[in-house]
Amino acid sequence: MPIAVGGRAARIQKAQLFGPDLDRVQETTPLSFERPELRDLLEIWRSKRQGRSLPQRADLSPFDLKAHLGHLFLLDVEREPLRFRYRLIGTAITRVVDRDATGRYFEDIYSGRLLETTIGVMSWVVRERAPLRIFSRTGHARNRIYLYDGVLLPLAKDGETVGMILGELRFTIESARAAAED
Hints:
Blueprint: E1 3-4, H1 10-17, H2 36-47, E2 72-78, E3 83-89, H3 91-97, H4 106-109, H5 112-128, E4 132-140, E5 144-155, E6 164-173, H6 174-181
Antiparallel strand pairs: 1-4, 2-3, 2-6, 4-5, 5-6
C-alpha cells in the first residue's frame, strides 16, 4: 500500500515507509490529492479541529459528510495491545470488496504481509496524530482490478489521544480508467 505524507508521490516514498523506516516519516508539506472529494474531507477535518490538535468524532455530523458517506470507514483504536476494529464501512466500499467487515478486527480479516502493512499504516496515523494519503492498486471481487485513493484522519475525544480513524476510499476500475485515457 503506497502512502503519501505531505505532497510527495507515495510510490517514491514506498521504500521509506515499510519496515523500520516507517518511524522516521514526517509530514513536511501539505497533502496532495488527485480526487477532489479527498481534499474536501481533509478540509472538513481541519475545520472541525477548533484550535485542538485533533477533532473529536462528535464534531463530524452526517450532514457535514453527506457527499462522502458511502466511501467512508471508521476504525476504533484499542490500546494495550494496539488493535483496530471496523466500526463502520460505507456501502461503496463494501460493494467493491464484496464483504462487510463491520465489527471485525484486522487480524480476523487480513493475514501475512497485508495484515502487517495495514497495521503499520494505521499505527503511523495513531503515533503521529496526522492525516495520511494512501493509494494503490488492488484486486477484489469478480476479478476486477481497482485503483484506489484514500485519506486517513485521526480523531480524539480529548483532542490529543487518537481513539478513532476516519478514512475515505475512492475506487476506480483500472480497465475503465485505461480505456478513458486512450
